[in-house]
């Protein structure tokens, strides 16, 4: 049996199995035994947890918390609102649309790791929302919509599917003339790097004019190991670039040191920081959310000028009308007809000529 399948079959998703890795606190135990929620992760990812610290950044993302019962700010039926599922346009359940030329194509609701902060938790974690994930129906819809040039294959985690199924989806999509690119959103390079097998590399690697891009999700430097580095290198050998889409999470990466360390360490394993998302208002995740400005402040205080420019992600609030980027607002301090006054990351000021149009 392949190691990645073994990892999934031995998923750590019971109190007993979790106790064999970490010292579960009474609060964690009560959450696990009383909350009606899907949870669990791979033996690999759980082995990266601090066994004695309930505030370990990996543990907080994986182990259910009683705080999930609090819901002051979450929007009910969040995914229906966020993914514009309640509109006049008739689409298969598998197709989520916020833009004219690109869509998200949901092909599974299964994950290797059930993130406590998942914005799709109503579908993936709580399972209150049932969607029909018919791959052929989705492909047919894409074929009929010539304005679609970019398909994001998502879930759940699409790399949980078999090599054959992934190969089928890619092949069918590449038969569609108007498609220009295929993207996968998968957390496997982080939570199950064993998934990047030779078999999967064969599926991904032949040269084709329609490229494949991958975005993964890593939220703390502690999640990155030598295995991550090898998996990403193998993906790059297939011509597949890997970007990161982190989520800004209170107590996990919302301080200058953790935020900078995360983005610096991503580059050491060849993952390009792409987005940092504000933690979305799905129900039951109030405890992970910061003020909205926080991400822009962290880019100002931890990244821009403080480290290599490649380490800089774009900070966005992902809404029902698309992603809204927020950037630090301190760069232009003053403007006259003659010149601008600009400020750098150290607070130093400089002048720059104002050129009329
Ligand atoms: S891997 Fe993605 S879809 Fe799955 S639980 Fe985590 S955030 Fe949600």
Write up this protein.
It is globular and about 70 Å long. Helix 9 runs parallel beside helix 11. The model has no long low-confidence stretch (mean pLDDT 95). The strands form two sheets. A nine-stranded mixed β-sheet has the order 1-2-3-4-5-6-7-8-9. Strands 10-11-12 form a three-stranded antiparallel β-sheet, with no helix packed on it. It has two domains: 69-326, Alpha-Beta Barrel (TIM Barrel); 330-357, no CATH class. It is of the alpha/beta class and 357 residues long. The chain has helices spanning 3-9, 15-19, 26-34, 43-46, 57-62, 78-82, 121-124, 135-144, 163-174, 188-191, 198-204, 226-237, 256-268, 294-303, and strands at residues 95-97, 102-106, 150-154, 181-185, 212-216, 241-247, 272-277, 314-319, 322-325, 332-335, 339-343, 349-353.
Shape: globular
The largest sheet, given as strand count, sense and whether it forms a barrel, is: 9 strands, mixed
Tell me the CATH superfamily of the largest domain. Answer: Aldolase class I
User: Mean pLDDT across all residues, rounded?
Assistant: 95
Which SSEs are present, and which pair or pack?
Elements (H helix, E strand, L loop, with lengths): L2 H7 L5 H5 L6 H9 L8 H4 L10 H6 L15 H5 L12 E3 L4 E5 L14 H4 L10 H10 L5 E5 L8 H12 L6 E5 L2 H4 L6 H7 L7 E5 L9 H12 L3 E7 L8 H13 L3 E6 L16 H10 L10 E6 L2 E4 L6 E4 L3 E5 L5 E5 L4
Parallel strand pairs: 2-3, 3-4, 4-5, 5-6, 6-7, 7-8
Antiparallel strand pairs: 1-2, 8-9, 10-11, 11-12
Iron/sulfur cluster binds next to loops.
């Amino acid at each position: 049996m392949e190691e990645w399948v073994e990892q999934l079959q031995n998923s750590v998703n019971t109190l007993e199995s979790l106790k064999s890795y970490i010292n579960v606190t009474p609060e964690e135990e009560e959450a696990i035994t009383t909350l009606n929620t899907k949870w669990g992760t791979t033996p690999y990812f759980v082995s990266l947890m601090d066994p004695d610290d309930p505030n370990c950044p990996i543990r907080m993302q994986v182990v259910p918390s009683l705080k999930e019962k609090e819901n002051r700010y979450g929007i009910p039926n969040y995914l229906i609102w966020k993914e514009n599922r309640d509109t006049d346009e008739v689409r298969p359940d598998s197709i989520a649309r916020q833009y004219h030329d690109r869509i998200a194509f949901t092909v599974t609701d299964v994950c290797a790791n059930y993130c406590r902060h998942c914005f799709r938790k109503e579908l993936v974690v709580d399972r209150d929302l049932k969607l029909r994930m018919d791959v052929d129906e989705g492909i047919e819809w894409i074929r009929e919509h010539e304005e679609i040039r970019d398909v994001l294959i998502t879930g759940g985690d699409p790399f949980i599917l078999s090599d054959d199924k992934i190969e089928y989806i890619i092949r069918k999509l590449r038969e569609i003339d108007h498609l220009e690119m295929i993207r996968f959103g998968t957390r496997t390079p982080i939570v199950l790097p064993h998934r990047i097998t030779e078999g999967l590399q064969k599926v991904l690697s032949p040269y084709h004019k329609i490229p494949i891009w991958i975005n993964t999700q890593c939220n703390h430097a502690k999640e990155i190991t030598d295995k991550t580095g090898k998996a990403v290198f193998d993906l790059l050998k297939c011509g597949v670039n890997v970007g990161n889409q982190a989520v800004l999470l209170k107590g996990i990466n919302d301080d200058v040191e953790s935020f900078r360390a995360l983005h610096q360490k991503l580059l050491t394993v060849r993952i390009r920081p792409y987005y940092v998302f504000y933690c979305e208002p799905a129900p039951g995740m109030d405890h992970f959310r910061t003020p909205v400005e926080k991400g822009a402040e962290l880019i100002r205080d931890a990244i821009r000028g403080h480290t290599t420019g490649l380490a800089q992600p774009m900070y966005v609030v992902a809404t029902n009308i698309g992603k809204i980027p927020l950037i630090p607002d301190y760069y232009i301090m003053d403007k006259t007809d003659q010149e601008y006054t600009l400020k750098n990351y150290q607070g130093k000021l400089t002048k720059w000529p104002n050129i009329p149009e």
